[in-house]
């Protein structure tokens, strides 16, 4: 059976349809003010639901497979600076619930800090509800949190790194049982207790889509056990050449661990794409973002991600954090597609892209990059992509 026939086979789940693509394609939504770039260079990008809804509908019409919102808990002023970077930050669980009614095909993934006071029964019920609202298109990006300041916002003590994943394993195991079992669940766990707990309706297929972004040993052990999609970061920072050298060993380790557990996972990475008709124009935009850096916000943003006990992001420089994203792909449409091809060869099954000026950059991407991706065999036409 051809890949295209497999994608359109009756009864195929939304996730399986997406996994049949040669390269998955997602959009990171800018639901925080300033999105990924602590820069004051001109742009129209906005954190509001209306703007993100426009991005999502446009991405779906272009044939993108998923959209994704990260979660942020910030104090007054966000990361600081004149731009008060990320002070405004909407909740991705509520945003994706709102997007369910506006979309028909695209997967909707919410990030939730599950250790910030949640009970598995709450999230099992909310997730099953959004799954029903969306026709089985909702996914949970489970994060455990690593910032002491965030734990303190909820009146909690920071939890040791590996212990966080022990707790996450119990949390998600309970959720999966609530989603799949048709009897009341009573359980006296190490961290959560339930008595006669029940969730109905059940999510399509008996569970919601599960996502995780991990790099540590404990995090990856959790991810390959539970997750359908695993986001990775480049161990060598945002430089494309260095990332493509470092990623193969990292992605091979993850895929081998998943294979040993009998799991069928996909690995995604987050490129920041700056694409213009000429390389000179793309480089000029890259330089403009750096020139516009808010020095206070950029420094605070950089220090936050390099100073915690997480293992991701350590190799990125402050300048790379100012641009944003995990790997930078800068150049012509042909160079962007070549960058995607190289990341795929390095073991990445999908690209979760972000932009600086989202709507115009996404429109240009759809017009100039997506046709080249199809020509290169990285994308198959879907029912909406063909009509775009």
UniProtKB/TrEMBL annotation:
SUPFAM superfamilies reported in the protein's UniProt record: Bacterial luciferase-like
GO molecular function: monooxygenase activity; oxidoreductase activity, acting on paired donors, with incorporation or reduction of molecular oxygen
Record keywords, A-Z: Flavoprotein, FMN, Monooxygenase, Oxidoreductase
PANTHER family with a match to the protein in the record: ALKANESULFONATE MONOOXYGENASE, ALKANESULFONATE MONOOXYGENASE-RELATED
Pfam families (alphabetical): Bac_luciferase (PF00296)
Name the UniProt record assigns to this protein: LLM class flavin-dependent oxidoreductase
Record InterPro entries: Luciferase-like_dom (IPR011251), Luciferase-like_sf (IPR036661), SsuD_RutA_monooxygenase (IPR050172)
Domain Luciferase-like: 23-349
